[in-house]
Specification:
The protein is an alpha+beta fold. It is built from six helices and five strands; from the N terminus they run H-H-H-H-E-E-E-H-E-E-H. The longest helix is centred in the middle third of the chain and has 15 residues. The structure holds zinc ion (ZN).
Amino acid sequence: MPITTEEASKIKEQLLTQLDNFPEEKRSQITEQINSMTGEQVEAFVKQNNLTHLGGQCIFCSIVANKTPSYKIAEDKNYIAILELNPLSKGHSLIIPKEHLEKVPESADALTQEIARKLKNKFNPEDVKINELKIMDHALLEVVPIYGNETERHQASEEELKSLQEEILKAQEIKMPEKPQEVKTEEIPILPPRIP
Ligand SMILES: [Zn+2]
């Protein structure tokens, strides 16, 4: 979906507010470059740099509204779970509150734990870490399986994400049966009969 002229100029405005981050002698050149971008170029630039929020929309709100495509792996009333596009490890997922909030409510726990369990059962990591993040002021949780060989994030390919999504969606949640409590009978030492 191409962006409108209005959106393009909004994004340009946003980009121009970032000029302070550049050395002074470069600013006029950058300003010129930004201003001369066509709508298509702005769109390509935004996509390339993951700056989709610059249109004034929060990327996560946009994902929740299905306006930005994502790899959804679960959903409940108040949250969605999607795959991270730049994962640190296989199965790295995000739990996003449908509301744009400052803090993730505790009710996110159910879906978060469900995803963590699924990832554990499916991919057998050493551990699964859960962190709270705030990106573009939208609080969310990340669920990161730890295999012990994580080094850095990589940009996941579409194929990789698609097959991972299928695998996770297919994975039945295996509920481990409660382990029956072993009844330990303390051995009572038998005292030798006392001979008075
Ligand atoms: Zn948001």
